[in-house]
Amino acid sequence: MIEIIETGPFNTVQDLGRPGYRDIGVSASGAMDPLAVRIGNILVGNDDGAAAIEVQTFPFKLRFEARAVFAVTGADGHPMLDARELLPWCTHFAEAGQILELRQPLTRARAYVVLGGGLDVPVLMGSRSTALRGGFGGNGGRPLINGDRIEIGTHSDGLPLPASGIAVVEPAVALDDVFPAPIDGVLPIRAIAGGEHELFASDGEAFWNQTWRISSRSDRTGYRLSGEPIKPTATIEMRSHGVVPGVIQVPPGGEPIIQMSDANTAGGYPKIAGIIECDLWRLGQARIGSRLRFIRSTHAEARAVEQAAARYIEDVRQTSQMIKRALKAMA
Amino acid sequence: MIVTSNILAPLREIVPATKGRARVSFIGARAFLLEAPGDFDLPAQRRIWALSQTVRHWVDIAEVIPGMTNFLAILKETPEDPEIVVRRLVEAWNNAESIDLAGKTIEIPVHYGGEYAIDLPAICEFSGLSDREVVRIHHEATYRVFALGSAPGFGYLHGLDPRIYMPRKTVPSLRMEKGCVTIGGMQTGVAMLTGPNGWNSLGYAELQMFDPTSPTPALMAPGDTVRFVPARIEL
Amino acid sequence: MSAIDLSDPATIAVLTDALIAAGVDGLEITKAGGHLRIVVSKGEGARVSLIGNAQPDFSAPLVAIVKAPMAGRFCASHPSAPAEAEHLPRAVSDKDVIGFLRIGFVLLPIPAGRSGLLTRRLTEPDALVGFGDPLCEIEPLQ
Questions:
Q1: 3-state secondary structure of C40
Q2: Is C18 domain-assigned?
Q3: Is B148 within 8 Å of A191 when comparing Cβ atoms?
């Protein structure tokens, strides 16, 4: 059991989401940085789908009511256990009564508290993620509030973790050859032209050539961008169709909206482009006010990046198991 | 049949759907949107239903989302050659026989008028009909669920009488109650969530239409027939 | 160099902790004039026997060696942290991480295992080390 001691608004229970129900109007939800949740779960020895706490407003504090293993992934900066600074992206043991505190990250947007055994909230439609719009899933279908108490699941991993923990070279560093770093503070985000791109004529080029800023009216549902508005050459009446996170739609005002994890399942605004899925975690870690630029991508490139990320995940999974087994054998 | 993806398609083929040819475009790397040519009507939607039933069983498909005379296919992984997927989808569309889904019939009791019918006066004004006539036209029609989307369990209903078509509001209501019976353009539906909503409300229904704990969370499914039964008319 | 008093309970405690942390079962030190024996028994802590006068004859400090718990590439600092020149010696406490064994993308933090003064690195940066290879030296604090 953990108890939430201090939380801002909009911190929620999330896992890898509930895709597969968009055809009945249910958003997939899930962590904005799924890579961080995957790695955290592998480190503590959970199943891939175990639920974590997504923290996007800080400071955040929780108290452990029993001994537990945990890792904090996603954000940069050091979490604190009581008064001790901890390594991020690393497993740690907490004793009953200890308090974990997450402070504002240095540059990123979201931290994930992953607990050995996962958060034991009911699985609804295949997921423990909070569906904020639908008001179900996660912790009572709503963001966490002070005083919430959440059960931790049974930790099934048979291999003991070393007392000093197991850590990883985080994705941004390990995969720096496939995820280019920001240039002068501008994050490159790869996208493929969308169905109505041609409709924007020369404004279509303006979309790719300018630097956009993530506006303050951005959340888990979508990021609104501010910049020089882009307009289609004709107004078209579009029929409502299915959309997925990463779709970049342009409402009449001309400032694009990127649908994120809590994306609506249907849309009707012209689509200028769609972000490749493997870049969405980087956007999930981009803060309000930060700048980005879209880079034209291809299916081939998306595939290459996905495969590199998959290899990294598999390497971490295999190697961490091997290390746990080796240490157990030598103990 | 010549296949065109969005990138290669000249401008004149993009504004609105042209005759005969389905258009396929990309949303990111593993989602493909097929838009049916022609009118927004039941025959086109029947082919979309048929297409969904076929494509849903492809081994490389993760998820299909039928929309309004369109269809989003989400692949399990990014394909090596997207043009092959485009060709397969267009071919499946061309081969799709119109099917009529053997849906169930859902009767929804409605309290027409009253405190939730906040847009009924505007509908009357736009249509030039009396409130009594608007309500009668609305509940006398038989509707088909074309697709679900936008909110959990929300069904887009086709079959609205053109006399009571009502454009979406340019400024949405900030807080429309869940259960409001609404008209949006040429469609009607029942609001599933309390919140901002651009459709026009003319009544209220209490029927529970979504339950996340049920094995079949949504009451409505594409192909279902819906009838609105006046439980009370308060004008 | 200063001698270590093996009859000092604090020294014995430090040694005992170090043995437990390192997973070693026991230690015996015999010097002219004294014999120290520490046996770590599971569950009940350590049994210490001191024979003779183990006091001042020790002329060398008791240096502890932190050894690699398995094979890997030893990095003195976290790969994500900006590289900084390390100032030695520096004081460390038992839980402090004095480096990482890097195996693929996984990092195994190496704790100091005892309090003391980290005086010397025994590997080149990013050197490939094997199980039991010495990584660094920690001297007890006076």
A1: strand
A2: yes
A3: no
**Domain B105-234, CATH class in plain words:** mainly beta
Is B in contact with A (3 or more beta carbon pairs below 8 Å)?
yes
Per-residue pLDDT 10s for chain B (235 aa) are 333 333 333 333 333 334 478 999 999 999 999 999 988 888 999 999 999 999 999 999 999 999 999 999 999 999 999 999 999 999 999 999 888 888 999 999 999 999 999 999 999 999 999 999 999 999 999 999 999 998 999 999 999 999 999 988 878 888 899 999 999 988 999 999 998 888 999 999 999 999 999 999 999 999 999 999 999 999 8
Q: Where are the alpha helices (DSSP H) in chain A?
A: 34-44, 171-174, 201-209, 280-284, 299-330
Q: In whole angstroms, what is the distance from residue B22 CA to residue B28 CA?
A: 19
Q: Report helix, strand or coil for B132.
A: helix
Count of domains for chain C = 2
What is the domain range of residue C69?
Answer: 64-139
Domain annotation covers residue A110: yes
The domain ranges of chain B are: 11-95, 105-234
Name the fold adopted by B11-95: Gyrase A; domain 2 (3.30.1360)
Count how many domains chain A has. Answer: 2
Chain B positions in Cβ-Cβ contact with residue A303 (cut-off 8 Å): 29, 77-80
Report yes or no on C76 lying in a domain.
Answer: yes
CA B133/CA B193 separation, integer angstroms: 28
Q: Which residues of A touch C103 (CB under 8 A)?
A: 319, 322-323
Counting Cβ atoms within 10 Å, is residue C51 exposed (0-12), middle (13-18) or buried (19+)?
exposed
Query: Structure pTM?
Result: 0.86
- Asked if the Cβ–Cβ distance from B68 to A241 is below 8 Å, we say yes
Q: Is A92 left (phi over 0), alpha (psi -120 to 50) or beta?
A: beta
- How large is the ipTM? 0.95
In chain A, the N- to C-terminal Cα span, in Å, equals 30
